[in-house]
Amino acid sequence: MGAAANPALAAGGATAVPRHVGIIMDGNGRWAAARGLPRALGHKAGAEAARRAIEAAAEAGIGWLTLFAFSSENWRRPPDEVQDLTLLMRHYLNTEVARLVREGVRLRVIGERERFGPELVRAIERAEAATASGTRLNLNVALSYGGRAEIASAAREIARRVAAGELDADAVDERMFGGFLGTAGMPDPDLIIRTSGEQRISNFLLWQAAYAEFVFQDVLWPDYGAAHLADAVTEFSRRDRRFGARAA
Ligand code: FPP
Questions:
Q1: Exposed e or buried b for every residue in 218-238, given b needs 16+ CB within 10 A?
Q2: 74 an active-site residue?
Q3: 140 a catalytic residue
Q4: What percent of the chain stands above pLDDT 70?
């Protein structure tokens, strides 16, 4: 269903569709616990919800979607849960590529992918290469991603170049700094959604979210679907975004 056919999206008006949406997909564990299931099955259902959200975003005309799939802090989880998530991600990448290509989705991974080991890195590289010509939706999957680590890494690289005489310290401004982040060349998120009722940013797109609108939805991620995304977009379209300027 496209924006025109979807009453919730149509109500917001085509111009109010956010260009870039970030989603903190939260609540897989609680969804599984509520059903007496292992957490791994919550994550599996979460991957299916991710597939629905990707399709819904593409149909709604959202150009960029960033999904927070594994944070830098998630390494603190028990090794078997990390292993389950790693295997799920690899399986997802290997089995979804054809569908992503068919749907015109370009996939990119931001974050410290190397930490997952060579097999997942290879699956990521294959998926990025196979989907590189997609133009309908730019999909970023944030893996081993942390906003502070990303900012520190950019600062380190800039300091290295300044020390090597390749860069003038006075030339470092916000625009240039943004070019050293994992999201270089991408638009900042207009809307950040978090599910499960929690209301935290949890180190997601810290630099990029400077002017993002936040929508917190009381739904566990595995239950997420097109109607939830449409609700979030409708809420976004009602917001008065001033970017620091005075209200009219
Ligand atoms: C948060 O739920 C979710 C995660 C840490 C993992 C997110 C991963 C997926 C949705 C699946 C893979 C995604 C892709 C794109 C293949 P939680 O475990 O913190 O839930 P809880 O707060 O209820 O315990």
A1: ebbbbebebebbbbbbbbbbe
A2: yes
A3: no
A4: 94
Q: Where are the domains of the chain?
A: 18-147+188-199+227-235
Q: Are 144 and 115 in contact (CB under 8 A)?
A: yes
Q: What is the C-alpha to C-alpha distance for residues 216 and 207, in angstroms, rounded to an integer?
A: 19
**Domain 18-147+188-199+227-235 in CATH 3.40.1180.10:** yes
CB 222 near ligand 1, within 6 Å: no
For 109-136, write each residue's pLDDT tens digit: 999 999 999 999 999 999 999 999 999 9
* SS3 category, 203: coil
* Of the candidates 53, 116, 129, the residue with the CA atom closest to the CA atom of residue 90: 116
pLDDT (mean) for 99-113: 98
- Helix segments in 131-244, DSSP class H: 147-163, 174-178, 226-238
Cα 68 to ligand 1 centroid, rounded to whole Å: 8
Residue 12 pLDDT level (bands cut at 50, 70, 90)? very low
CB 134 less than 6 A from any atom of ligand 1: no
Quickly tell me which residue has 């939260």 as its tokens. Answer: 26
| pLDDT, tens digit, 9 for 90 and up, residues 205-216 | 999 999 999 999
- The verdict on the CB of residue 29 being under 6 Å from ligand 1 is yes
pTM > 0.70: yes
